[in-house]
Design brief:
By secondary structure, this protein is α+β, with helices and mostly antiparallel strands. The protein has eight helices and six strands.
């Protein structure tokens, strides 16, 4: 399934002999799904039907579906609130019997009372079917626009992934020398301290302690996880060596991508805190910049 953005726009219209229907769909980023329908009042009953038809396509985002109907005649009928009319007549009769007074309620009196009459507009089956057809057409256009929007993001996302890969290789290439330089610097510092305080050192013990301290700055595990997470992101984008099953379901692809990018950022921060080497620190800053850019774009992926 192609990559899709949460940002999309689609329109469709259909005209019959006496009326026309126009449908517009707009969407943008949203953490979950917020699907709203704005239908002509007479056809609000169509919302559950349209919602079920949209469900397989609309996964995430704030989506507003507007339908405008022009030229369609509406069949109206007037309904009398019969229980209220009976209750009023019975109450009038009872009061007349109890007081001896004469009360009469004319039809004009009844219809002038609040809530006595209700005007109900009858929906036309032909119009309802045309609304559904037009909405489905707008849905197709909207869905295609999301694919196009994601396709525009893809080159920049792949470029930032390449930058991240280059950063990882720089760190991997520099790590052994940085570790050895750290060990040598620790030994030199300890020797200088011992010399200043006229203390003799056990060279074997000194080497061991320096090696232990340098070991705490080892970043091999972080590099392995960086490799694993970056490959997973590439697979989600469809650019990796293997296309995982995640690409067949776009409903969670954006969320999985954001999770992986957050893990990549965490590993970069760990490397930056463990290694004080200038070249590695500069590479970490570059890598974090690429990850931040990826997160910004991934936030718009379904």
């Amino acid at each position: 399934m192609p990559l899709k953005s949460m940002t999309g726009f689609g329109q469709a219209s259909r005209t019959e002999e006496t009326f026309s229907v126009f449908c517009e769909i707009r969407s943008w980023n949203y953490r979950g799904l917020d699907l709203q329908f704005r239908l002509p009042e007479t056809y609000n009953a169509l919302e559950p039907i349209l919602r079920s038809e949209f469900a397989p396509v609309v996964e995430r985002g704030k989506v507003i579906v507007g339908v405008r109907l022009t030229g369609a005649s509406v069949e109206s009928r007037i309904v009398i609130n019969e229980p209220l009319a009976r209750a009023l007549s019975e109450t009038t009769r009872r009061i007349a019997e109890e007081t001896g007074a004469t009360f009469t309620l004319s039809p004009r009196d009844l219809v002038s009372l609040p809530e006595m009459l209700d005007v109900i507009d009858s929906a036309s089956d032909a119009v309802a079917e045309l609304i559904r057809h037009t909405a489905r057409k707008a849905l197709e256009v909207w869905d295609q626009s999301r694919i196009c929007e994601a396709a525009r993001l893809l080159p920049d996302m792949n470029r930032n992934l390449e930058i991240l890969g280059e950063v990882i290789e720089v760190i991997r290439g520099r790590a052994p020398d940085a570790r050895e330089e750290r060990r040598a610097k620790l030994i030199q510092t300890l020797r200088e301290i011992a010399q200043d305080h006229t203390v003799s050192l056990d060279e074997q013990r000194l080497e061991f302690e320096a090696a232990q301290m340098a070991e705490r700055a080892d970043i091999n595990e972080e590099l392995v996880r960086l490799d694993s997470h970056s490959i997973a992101v590439k697979n989600l984008l469809g650019a990796g060596p293997t296309k995982t099953s995640d690409t067949s379901s776009s409903s969670a692809r954006g969320q999985k991508m954001l999770f992986l990018l957050q893990e990549l950022l965490r590993e970069m921060n760990t490397i930056g805190s463990k290694v004080g080497d200038l070249e590695i620190v500069q590479a970490v800053v570059r890598g974090k910049t690429a990850i931040d850019r990826l997160k910004e774009m991934a936030a718009n992926i379904v």
